[in-house]
Model the fold of this input.
Amino acid sequence: MLELRLVQGSLLKKVLEAIKDLVNDANFDCSATGFSLQAMDSSHVALVALLLRNEGFEHYRCDRNISMGMNLGNMNKMLKCAGNDDIITLKADDGSDTVTFMFESPNQDKIADFEMKLMDIDSEHLGIPEAEYHAIVRMPSAEFARICKDLSSIGDTVVISVTKEGVKFSTKGDIGTANIVCRQNTTVDKPEEATVIEMKEPVSLTFALRYMNSFAKATPLSHTVTISLSSELPVVVEYKIEDMGYVRFYLAPKIEE
Amino acid sequence: MKRQQSILSFFQKP
Done:
């Protein structure tokens, strides 16, 4: 028996909006500690890891570990039917091949349930090794989204370079080149507006912008984004979900032929 | 020309 009641149902709606274009089908894993997902995009270039810890739910019951295969496009269709202020409850019986999403309006005057068919998905969890990152940049998520969007109108790839000067996002294309430098800035009114750069050593890596733009769909989940870089490792683009967990995107770099 | 690496080159299957 599985029953997860999320008062802030809009969080789940935002999570699906953030990952549905990157991943078609995925297994949601539910255990006593939380609700999680790990999945790759179809070309095996990027990986998404989601964690929603049990303590973030108003009610969390998961009698035994279960893995529920879902088509994220279909799940998103169902969650779009929930209001932004609705409470969302996920329910599944042991051995069932369906999951039910229950939507309750805040004043309890409307209750809907949507039952979705589960699917068998063959997927293996990848082991993500602990890594020491050469540079970690924390910046406003909207700023990062803006930079990725702007650069993708010029080129297809972004070079992210961290030096003591700051973090530089560069691209080039047929029409020209673009460089955007963000310097560390902690003298802001609100902590979420700060740009904080922790650098152990300079690093410069090249990534496909279309994936970065896909990751930026998680912007509504968090005011800030953390970008962790090490040479010859996938970048980690992390959006923390307040009090609950995170969505992390891993993207393999492009290298010289 | 740069080549896109796979995430599977970094993260191992169990």
User: Anything to note?
Assistant: The CA atoms of residues 8 and 14 of chain B lie 12 Å apart. Chain B touches chain A at residues 1-14 (CB under 8 Å).
